[in-house]
Every structure is written in structure tokens, then in C-alpha cells.
Amino acid sequence: MLKRVLVMLVAIWCGAAQAQEPIKIGAFLAVTGPFSFLGDPEQKTLELYVEKLNAAGGVLGRKLQLVSYDSAGDAEKARTFAKRLIEQDKVDIIVGGTSTGETMAVVPLAEQAGMPFISLAGAVVIIEPVKKWVFKTPHTDRMACDKIFVDMKARGATKIGLISGAGGFDKSMRGECLKVAKNYGIEIVADETYGGADTDMTAQLTKIKNTAGVQAVLNAGFGQTPAIVTKNYKQLGIGVPLYQSHGVASKQYIQLSGDAAEGVRLPAAALLVSDKLADSDPQKIVVSRYRSEYETRFKSDVSTFGGHAYDGLMLAVDAMKKAGSADKAKVRDALETIKGYVGTGGVVNMSPSDHMGLDLSAFRMLEIRKGDWTLVK
Length: 377
Prior knowledge:
There is one protein chain. By secondary structure, this protein is an alpha/beta fold. The protein is built from twelve helices and 14 strands. The chain has two domains: 2-139 and 285-362, Rossmann fold; 141-268, Rossmann fold (3-Layer(aba) Sandwich). Helix content is 43%, strand content 18%. The strands form four sheets. Strands 2-1-3-4-5 form a five-stranded parallel β-sheet, with helices on both faces. A four-stranded parallel β-sheet has the order 7-6-8-9. It is globular.
């Protein structure tokens, strides 16, 4: 009898101890380095909302614990940190991967370990072909090409110049734009590239300027170099519209570009224009609340990149609640069935064949006017 009581007490103690163990959210982000204006708001967002969730009681009766490393945008560091998160820190899910290069370096590890991984990077290659354990929150580079080409066509531009960088996102977006251009009757008549360390793109832009018939230019770029392209563009007096990717959707791009950014268009999430959305817009409440909470806490402008981290964390939490568990396989399965999640990036509807769950309506076309974002009607 005593032995049975002891066994029961041990079982109760173990169960209580397990219930108190935190749910570990792993992250590797480019908090410093050339992509810091993306990774820093991602890190701050995760810290803010882990804190807020814990203050509200946690998830499934357990506190959340954020285990995060600064990859500085380096793919090899990202791989090392992801390995540590999986093998040593024993995290329950990974929400991170600021850039495409970092993300793709970690994908094989996540797949092999059976680790749910929600990436914050943009390239379509992250989710196509579908990878069992990998999901993502941002709009894809292909979607950016689609949205931009629709807008170009509406403005009467059918012959365009393309300029792109050497990074993983840049190369992927360039490739996607080349693939889908014909779907919109767009002809790419100039195609130039630049290196990640380049500080002047005048030579490439001059070639585009001198190409007969160019009616608009698209920079498939990411990070800080698009600001250089924008400044060089103005210096050369290129008199046709300039488009950028969603990879520059932060106030820092406007600040780095100065008045050269006037008139530049790009596709981005509704978050950047939360104050300009109609009250009937399903994202209005979500993006307005996130913007207010982030800017109040950190005294800095919100960016779509922090929004990607917010969506990644909240999708992870929703999946755990739906699964009733932090079990990795159950969470993965639950992520794949999420429908109608309203986030900063759009309304998410996941499926076994779509591990992002956003359609083109999630993108808004923006134009920079007087140092601020405006909605293109």
C-alpha cells in the first residue's frame, strides 16, 4: 500500500513539474550586421509578446521562454545556432530566420529533427516545394513580382529594366520576376546585377537608362543596398517610375534614401499604413494594436519585419492551443490546418500544399510621399 502511495505521489509530482516547465520558443535572428534593421525589430517583437503572453498566464498553463541567438545575417552562424537550439536547448519550436540564406541553411536541420520551423524570410523557395516541418510568415518574392507587374501594367509600363543584388532573396526574386513577367505582358529589356558590398550602382543604372524603351525600373533587392540604388537613380535623373521589393518595407529605407525615395512604389503589408486603413478592413484592429504596443514600448517606428515575428509567434501559439499540446508533431499538424488567422501580414489560410497561407490580396501597393507611406488606390 505504501509503495502504491509513493508511486502515485511521484507520478503527481512529475506531472506537476512537467506542467510548470516552460514552452521554449527558439529563434535565430540578424539582430546585428547588415540586416539588423530587420532582425532587431523581430527580436524586440518576440521579447515583447512573450512577456505579454506570460503576463496573461502563458500558453496551456505554462510560461513561454524565448531562447534567441544573434546570427548577424550569417548563414553558417544560423546553422550553428539552430543546431544548438535543437540539440542543447531542446526548444519546442523555432520562429526565426531573418534572411533567406539563413533560413535555407537551417531547413535541412529542422526537417531531419522534426522541428516545427516558422521562417521570417521572403523567398518562395522556403515553402516551394512544400517541406513538412517548414512554414513562413512574409509574402513571397513571387507575390511581390506579381503585385508590382499588375501596378506597372495599370500605369502603361510594359518594357522595364531590372536590377538586383547578389543575396539569396535578391537572386530568388529576380528569377521569379523573369518567370512571371510574360503573364502580365511585361518585357524585361535590361537586366543588371550588383554585389552585396557595392557602394555605387551608377554603372548598372546608366546601362538601364540608356536602354531604349524602358518605362519603369524594378530593384529586386533586400537590406540596405536598395537605398544606394535609390540615391543613384535620382542622381542620374532617370525619369521613369522606380519600384522596390517588400524587402525594404521599413522607415529606415526612407531615412537612408532621403528625398530620393519620393515617388518610389513597393508592395508591403497593411501594417505600414494602419492609420490609413478603412475601419471595415479585417486587419485594422490587429495592425493598429501591434503598432501602438511596439512603438509605445520601444519608441521607434514599426516595420513589417517585426510584424513577421509577431505573426510567427502568434501562429505558433494558436497551433499549440489548437493541438492542446506543445508536442512537435501535433503542433506541426495544427499549423497546417490554421484558417482565418488575421495577422499583420494578412489573413492566413494554411493547408498541406501551402505553408504560408497568404494570397495576393494581403499585399498593399504603397508609394512614398514626403517621407511617409501612402496607399495607392
